[in-house]
Design goal:
single chain, about 210 residues, alpha/beta, Rossmann fold, five-stranded parallel beta sheet, four-stranded mixed beta sheet
């Protein structure tokens, strides 16, 4: 049975990973794909809906899920918990969906340890100055929070060597093309194609005998 590919996508806040994922999903000609919906204890941002962007839970509920070993990864970031449901990922992959995990490097380490066949992508900004400019233009955080994110950005970027692919998000369309190329290449790996075209390969080998 053909299964999807799990893509881990990380970046410092403001580098554009969420925008790239959203743009990819809006295209009409890609393999079925979805973003894994994470659990979090932070408050919803304007426009965010429970069950669509995140599963919003309180600290007590989240810690109960940790005890139940429900997460393939979880982390404590900016005073809040974030976690990814193991059951949800496995179900989506088994249905043939490519699954995107929008998580930080800490979560990526946990996922790679448990699911080593996953593919990982790190999105970089063209400069720290541009990263700060994007955070300001986003208008979601006050200056104190922005400075906190900038201080964390260098530490996050230092983990780029742990990832399979790097995209420098200077020009958005170029970055989207690069993301498409990575996803297409993953789907063309021998094991994926052998499963998808099992009958054809058997016929081709039979014809050669």
């Amino acid at each position: 049975m053909y299964t999807g590919t799990l893509f881990i996508i990380s970046a410092p806040s403001g580098a554009g990973k969420s925008s790239l994922i959203r743009a990819y999903l809006q295209q009409q000609d890609h393999q079925p794909a979805k973003v894994s919906i994470s659990h979090t204890t932070r408050d919803p941002r304007p426009g965010e809906q429970h069950g669509e962007h995140y599963y919003f839970v309180d600290h007590s509920q989240f810690e109960s899920l940790i005890e139940d070993n429900a997460f393939v990864e979880y982390a404590h970031v900016f005073d809040h918990y974030y976690g990814t449901s193991k059951a949800e990922i496995e179900q989506s992959l088994s249905q043939g969906f490519n699954v995107f995990l929008d998580i930080d490097w800490q979560g990526a380490q946990q996922v790679r340890a448990k699911m080593p066949i996953s593919k990982s992508i790190f999105i970089l900004p063209p400069s720290l100055a541009e990263l700060e400019n994007r955070l300001i233009k986003r208008g979601q955080d006050n200056q104190q929070v922005i400075q906190k994110r900038m201080q964390k950005a260098k530490a996050e970027i230092s983990h780029y060597q742990e990832y399979d692919y790097i995209i420098i998000n200077d020009d958005f369309n170029t970055s989207l093309t690069a993301l498409n190329a990575i996803i297409t290449a993953a789907g063309l790996e021998q094991q994926k194609q052998a499963t998808l075209h099992k009958q054809l390969l058997a016929q081709l080998l039979q014809d050669n005998n």
